[in-house]
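EI: anyone free to look at a 319-residue chain?
SC: sure, send it
EI:
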Amino acid sequence: MDPAVALIRTTLNAASLAAPGLAGRAAFELYRHPVRRGRVRTREREVHDRAVTESLTHRGERVAVYRWGDGARPVLLLHGWQSRASRFAGFVPRLTALGLTPIGFDAPGHGDSGGRTATVLDCREIALRLQERHGAFEAVIAHSLGVNAAFLALRGGLRAGRLVAVAGVAEVSCLPAAFCERLGLNATVERELRRRAESGAMFPGVADVAAHFDAARSPEEVPLPILVAHDEDDDVVPFGHARRLAAAYGDRLELLATRGLGHRRILTEPTVVDNAVGFLAAGQETAGGHIPAPGPAPARGPAPASRPASAPGREVDAA
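SC: here you go
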């Protein structure tokens, strides 16, 4: 057991007996701040160093922005919690080969950006700022909590032709319980944490957190083709999140189910990258070389025979 986790568990559970509010406040601070910043991994370094590095300011903090390409036909990359844009290194050369320009950023409190923390609301606002700079996106590729931010942004004015959602969080209301389970925190701490996490302390102006951040609500508000890739053995975001999205979006959504990859390795698995790139390439073929940004729901042609592994519900054993 990680000694730091053991110390947090013992301290907060003991404190909750005498001062539940204090224990809940401490848990909330841990919950809303990344424990560590993701570093650029060795296998990501070459792609990361080729990016044109830009920046923007959000809430008074510098946000690191990365661009691969000349800016034409941009594709937005949204990373997850305690992650960074370089995690999409496996996608970048494949996207640029299609004539696309991948654009990503390190969320506040992550990677090389300033600040101490970020919520999906921050990621939504930064995505919209990047749209002002680069125009409508050909597609969005998101991982983990970035998937929830992607759906939120698409409902809030972000324009994109297609969405690739990898190991995505469909609803944030389950996260306090998952956080407490991972650290072994008791029911009292969880109750106090949830009270804060669902209040204006974390999401100012949001009255109903569960509904507002439910990616499956009002699917007609996100009228574009979606590819969901999720591993049945994901121990961070359960596979049920993928099922929830598939049930909501019906035949507009293709579900790529994998086994043995977990929550993080799925983002670098060649089979998953192949299917995601094929999904975007199919959009180009359907639209005569250009993925249409949505006005009305875009027309969808049949899935090309060259991509059988990304048919709805088809499982890929990539252990």
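EI: Residues 197 and 293 are 34 Å apart (CA to CA).
SC: 👍
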